[in-house]
Structure formats: structure tokens, C-alpha cells
What we know:
Beta-galactosidase, Chain A, domain 5, globular, disordered N terminus
Amino acid sequence: MTSQPEKRSPIPRRTALGTALGTALGGVAAAALPATAHAEDLLQAAPSAADGPVADVGRGPWRLRDTMTTDTAWNDFLRGQDLLWTRLPTRWYEGPFLGDGLLGSMVYQEPGARQIRFTVQHGRVQDHRPEFGSGWGTCRLPVGHLTLEPVGTITALDWRLSLWNAELTGTITTTAGTLTLAALIHDEVLAVRATADGDERVVWTFHPEEAVSPRKIQEAPPAGYTANPPWTTQTTTDGTRQVLQPLTGGGRTATAYRRTGDDLLLSVGHSFPSDTAAEADSLRNLRRATSYATLRRRHTRWWRAFYRKSFVSFPDQRLQSFHWIQLYKVASASRAGGPVMATSGPWLEPTPWPAVWWNLNVQLEYWLIHGSNHLELDSLATTLRQSQEQLIANVPAAYRSDSSGVGRSSDMFANRAVGLPGTGAETGDLTWALHNAWLSYRHSMDESLLRDTIYPVLRRAISYYLHFLTPGSDGRLHLPSTLSPEYPVVPPQDTNYDLALIRWGCRTLIESAELLGLDDELRPRWQEVLARLTPYPVDDNGFMIGADTPYAQSHRHYSHLLMVYPLYLVNWDQPENRDLITRSVTHWHALTGAHRGYSYTGAASMYAMTGDGDTAITYLRKFFDPATRFPCQANTHYTEAGPVIETPLSASQSLHDMFCQSWGGVIRVFPAVPADWADVTLHDFRTQGAFLVSAVRKAGTTRFIRIRSLAGEPLGLRHGLTGALTVLLDDGTPARTHDLGEGTLGIDLPKGREVLVHSGSRPDLVIAPVAVSEPGPAWGLP
């Protein structure tokens, strides 16, 4: 994760701040929202469910009996996953965290004082001086923090971060009395309600922070860099205080806050190039909030609709809780229509990584939104769509007529020049990010996402490669030297990172052109590349880094293995490649020293592809082992010299890969469940092809699978059931089926219809949490 200077973009930025996905993703409203769109507009509310009996889900002669339809059921289940504190957290990665996709706050002890810090950071607050690079010139900028200042010395703590309410509640006991607080973030407003008993008092102070790159912890500013001006303060007629932070490169950040009775409300606005819009935005957000209670009603309505979109339960309490915390975390960090997640998410701390990193981090951040049925969180697809002009400007001028790209790190507008193949530059990052957008398309089958974003941007990303592919004496097409992220050697020719992305890109473009009914003039060229591109460099240990460059020293990234995961170009369904996959993954982890948390989550997902759930969970648990050099932290966040949000989120995807996979046109239900997890429940797990899968495993056996088709795509199912199958449509008639070989069943399932698959007599079709067989402590500091 290094930064280099970049050129100033010619693209106006204010217009990009609020642009949302132009269509609904998987039925979730996200259309043409302005910059001031509020949270409840981004997620259609689920029908309200009063507390009551178990609900039947579906229609016809069979229905699922869903126990998770009431507020009581959800509250009871998620309460068991909550984070708890009985000790005062002293670091950001120990404390509670709040967010709404834009505004974020971490809660922990004020360094050097017996006070409580609420950090105040915002995903849109950044500098605007591209000439100084993404580390300094377009980096995320700190805003400030609040302190709650007890009169007495803190003697005890009792806090709960409720996932169901997305709210921190609890008490602080001091030698002078008790402080009781509740806090949440919604619609870009941090709301805290605090009361005091005994001789305690509620004392709040807001501390603005210098608008300088958090990267200052490791290096001096670049030559010619001048500090941003100091902030100023003012008070409005209604008593609202504002801190105004002008920026040398243009634009402004405004933090507005007011205290009314027990309530403290705070909002942050940021604008560029305008110097006044931020001020108005922050005040407007506060006017909408009015009080803690008013904001809380809107807040809980959003979150309760959010959780109801899918359900998963399995018997390991610690990991089950972790998984639900990651869903809370990703919804706190990202919303479609908002900025792409920076490497720290919306929780900025001193860090070397105060920007967006495109060579692994941003990709891993979004994977879990697909299976969990939360495409309304896809700000990466938003960014790729609204940044198309910038992606063109990122390539050298000679290639802008047909090419696009992005460098290793950028601001939220994807402003970072990409280098030339042949110079050892890292060139494949945009193509890999487009794979994420392709996954969103495949999970929604939203043709407009394919037509308006993926196809035009991928066409240009692959065209950039095509300029540099040259035939060798072997008749094959070869790529000059490029960097395999982040392998520390002289960049080789024919890196496997780029060869895998070129192959995936050309295949996807050909498939997309067919889907869109386009007769693209470049199709013959893509076909030629697929036919003539040099094979992946391989040696006795498996996949190499590139031509004449073996994998010979420990490597934290799996950039040389993308063809295995997540692209699945080389996969376990190809018996001739199984030995190569095994050798490659084994050798990758045999060379130790450089591995990080995502090295373990990546290996877990690769072993899940092979169907080896026990090895997959062994690697995944390394991420949670305190003896590991970079383990998961107390509040489920992760740090490498600063917040690095992608790894915990990717760990949830590793769990998804154990429970349900849908690559290669086949849905695989319970493909790699660890032997110790005899019981698993999935409900409305979203797969490629836009299917919703519900399935129950009991005593180590799959009892039933229900699949609903949202798009009418072909359905191939690897069910793992034995014996005679019953395959019924939702009207009770047998579904038409086809044996596709390799244990895969083809099922004719029209759009909007459901199918039930089971063996033997009809099982109880109940969706419910499973019993915990592996107890574990709560996350936090319980």
C-alpha cells in the first residue's frame, strides 16, 4: 500500500458526490438519489410484522414455517450476538462503533484522560489536491471527536452494542455517580442521549482535529505541500455551534452540533468545490433530526428492514456472532449512492492507508453483500458508474480513446493514474474491481448495471491490456512486465494476476455482448486473445508469480491465484486441475512470515471450493487466533498500523463459501460445512442467477432446499441429497428436471416461482436458529 503523486483531474467533483446507481439492484430502490438522500430512502422497508405466531412463507401445498418474522424473535436472536463491555476500551479496535454508510464513530477512552471519546469521521471528507497523491493530496481527512467528561473517576462500565437496534446503550459508574447513555448514527447525524445520577454531570466537548493526512504517523508531507487553513467556529441563532474547516484545494467541511436537554446531536457536511454547501448540509441534517427519539424511530425502522432480508444460523457461537456483526459493520460503512469504502471504512484513525486501495482491499470489502442479500450496500458499483470519465483520465493520454484504468490507491472519485505495462506498473486493479460489479449483476440480473457500467468500463479496461499484448516466438500473446500485487520482486512478464484478469475480462465481454444483443467489433479480438494468450506460468510448486518468477518468498496477497479464487477459472470441477490447485495453495502458505488476516480468509475460501470444510475452518480460525501476528481484534475490527476493514468482511464471505456457492452456473448447497457443525440454517441466501435459497441441515444431513427464482435464469443445483428426490413447484406439481452430470440437477423454475427439493418423506419445513454446540464469549470486552 504505497502512494505516488497523481495529476489533477479535469472532472468536476460536486456532481459526483450524490450520484446513485441509476436502477434498482435486486429490487432495492436506489434510483437517481441526490446527495442529500436519507437512509430510509435507500432500503425499502419490509412489511411490518407484529409479534405473533410463526408465519407461513410461500404459497400452495407446501410452505416454509419461518420463526424469524417477528420483532421479538429477531431481538431475541440478535441479542445473543451483541457486543458487550464491562471494561473501558482504550483503543479504537476494542470499542463500540456506529455508522450509517457516511458518518462514523468509534467509542473508547480518551488517550491520557479518564474520559470517553466519540470519534467523528465522515466518508466524504477528503482533501482535493491530486498533485500530492492519494496519501496526502486526496486522502481522507479527520474531522474531530467528542469527549464525555465525568466528574468522578470511572470505576465500572456496562455497555451493549445492540445489533437489532444498531445502538450503543449502557452505564458508566464513577466515584461521583452514574452516567447513562444511548448513542446511534442515522441520516448523517450522531445522536447521543446522556443522563447523570448522584453527583455526576453530563459534560460534552467537541474537539476539531487538524485537517491533515493521517499518514503523518509514518512520513513527512511531500515537497511543496502546504497545510490546510485552521478551522473557525460560529454559533447560529438557534444556538447550534459550527466548526468550519476550509481546504487549500477548495471545498469545506462543516461540523454542526447542538445540545438540547439530555440530547446531543451532531452532523458533518462536506462540499467541493463549494465553500458554503457543507455548512447548509450539516444544519439541514440537524433540523431533520429534531431529537434523539425522533431520529431513533427512523433509525430502527431502517435496520429492522435490513436484517429481515436474509438469515443464517450455525452452532459456533463466537463465529455466528462475528458474522452478524460483519453485516452490521458493512451496513454501517456503505450504502449504494454513497462513496466507495476507504480502507478504513468511515472510521478514520492515524493510519498509513487513508484512501481507497484497489489491489485487494476494495474487492474483499464487498463480497459478503451478495449472499447476504444486501445489494443496496453496493457503493463500489455506484463509484464505477459515476467515475467513468475519471477512469478514462487515469490512463496516459495516448490511450484515452479506448482505455480506462485506476492506480493502486485513490480518493473516492477513483482519481489515480495507472502505469504502463512494460514498466512494472500495477495495471489490473480496475478489472478486478469490475469483477465485483459483475457479481452484483449476476446476483441481481439487473441488465442496466451490465449495460451502463460493467460492459463499457470493462471493454475499456481490457482494451488497455490489448495495446500491450505482443506475439512471441511461440506464437502466443505475451504481456510485458507488470506488478503482481504486492509481491516484492522485480515485476515479471506474464504475471498470473494479469493473465487471469485478461482471460476473465475477455470471456465476460463476449458473454455480456451476447446478453445485451451487441455485435461488438472487438469480439474477434477478444476471441483471439482467449485462443492465443500464453498459459499461466506454473512450476513444480504450482502457480508462479509470472514468467521466470516463481513464488519463492512469503506473500500476503493471493494475487497470483486469482484464477482459482475468486474468478474460478481454474476450479475443483476440473479434475485435471485439482493437483495444481492443491500444490499452489499449500505452497502459498508453506512460506510464512508475510501472511496477514486476509491470507487466511482467502485460503479458507479456496479450501471451501474444494469441498474441504474442515481445512477451510482451520485456516479461518487462524484469523481469530491471538497467537497470529495480525488477528481479529476485540470489536471484530482489524489493524495493520491502522484500520483495515476488508479482512473481517472477507471472513464472513469465507463462511458464505462454506454454506452456499454459486459459481459456474451451479448452486452448491452446504458444499463445505465443517464436520463439527451438524446443524445449519440458511434463509433467503442470494446466489448468482438471482435466486433466493433457503436450506436446513440437521445432524449432518441436508433436510430440504427451497429456491425462489427472481429472474427466471437457468437453475443448476448441486444438492448433496441421497436417495430418491422429491422436486415440487409451489403449486404442488413436480418440477421438470434434468441430470446435468457431476451430481448437478437442472430444474425448470420460472421467474417468481419456488421449488422444494428433499429426499425421503417430507421434512419439517422450519426456518429457525440452530442450537449452539460451541459456546464462546461475546465480542467486545465482556
